[in-house]
């Protein structure tokens, strides 16, 4: 019997994309097991969701370690402990340490609320992205799923989905509409990647 792939979800905040992934699993649209949730923020709302669902969770904060390598090593140990196959970043606001990206090549993915390579990089998250899109006078925006490397929003693009920027759009209204397509796109792409991983693993 083929086992389910083990997914780790990394988050820093309320976890709306995490909830969308759990919903996709519940409705049979994403066939994975969430093996662990990892956060750099002990106050993250996503941790409460994990606790309510009985999903193991670990808080691994950079400030608890002297070096970046120690931080990366702690994350790697957690991933190995839970036999993780694939990592999905869901609003995780810290750069993934090189030790982890090297151990999981093309098995760490992120969803970004813009059409990369535009409006990516350090500090480009949440409403900051939507503010920048509107200020730049863009006619369209969307969501991008990409592989994660050692540079913010730099890895190869896997998929994008576009929406029009409406006249009179606010960062809040745009953010809501982009989040809707994030919640549709992310489970679809993760399922595709899971299928690839299982083919290689079994």
Structure description:
The structure is a single chain. This protein is α/β, with parallel strands linked by helices and 202 residues long. The chain has a single domain, classed as Rossmann fold (3-Layer(aba) Sandwich). The chain has a seven-stranded mixed beta sheet with strand order 3-2-1-4-5-6-7, sandwiched between helices. Helix 1 packs across helix 6 and helix 5 crosses helix 6. It starts with a strand and ends with a helix. The mean pLDDT is 95.
SSE order: EHEHEHEHEHEEH
Main pleated sheet: 7 strands, mixed
Q: Numbering strands along the chain, what is their spatial order in the largest sheet?
A: 3-2-1-4-5-6-7
Number of strands: 7
Low-pLDDT parts are none
Portion of residues in beta strands equals 15-25%
The helical percent reads 25-40%
Q: For the record, what is the CATH homologous superfamily label? A: Formyl transferase, N-terminal domain
Domains, number = 1
Number of helices: 6
Named CATH architecture: 3-Layer(aba) Sandwich
What is the level 1 CATH name? Alpha Beta
Write a concise keyword list for the protein shown above.
alpha/beta; 7-stranded mixed β-sheet
């Amino acid at each position: 019997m083929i086992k389910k792939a083990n997914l780790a979800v990394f988050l820093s905040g309320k976890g709306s994309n995490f909830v969308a992934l759990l919903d996709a699993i519940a409705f049979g649209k994403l066939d994975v097991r969430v093996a662990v949730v990892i956060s750099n923020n002990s106050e993250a709302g996503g941790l409460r969701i994990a606790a309510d669902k009985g999903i193991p969770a670990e808080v691994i904060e950079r400030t608890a370690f002297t070096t970046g390598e120690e931080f990366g090593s702690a994350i790697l140990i957690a991933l190995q402990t839970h036999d993780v196959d694939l990592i999905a970043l869901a609003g995780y606001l810290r750069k993934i340490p090189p030790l982890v990206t090297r151990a999981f090549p093309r098995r760490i993915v992120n969803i970004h609320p813009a059409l990369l390579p535009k409006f990516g990089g350090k500090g480009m998250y949440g409403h900051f992205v939507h503010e920048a899109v509107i200020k730049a006078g863009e006619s369209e925006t969307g969501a991008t799923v990409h592989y994660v490397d050692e540079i913010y929003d730099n890895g190869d693009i896997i998929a994008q989905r576009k929406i029009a920027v409406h006249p009179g759009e606010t960062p809040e209204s745009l953010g809501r509409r982009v989040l809707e397509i994030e919640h549709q796109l992310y489970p679809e792409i993760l399922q595709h990647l899971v299928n690839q991983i299982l083919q290689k693993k079994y």
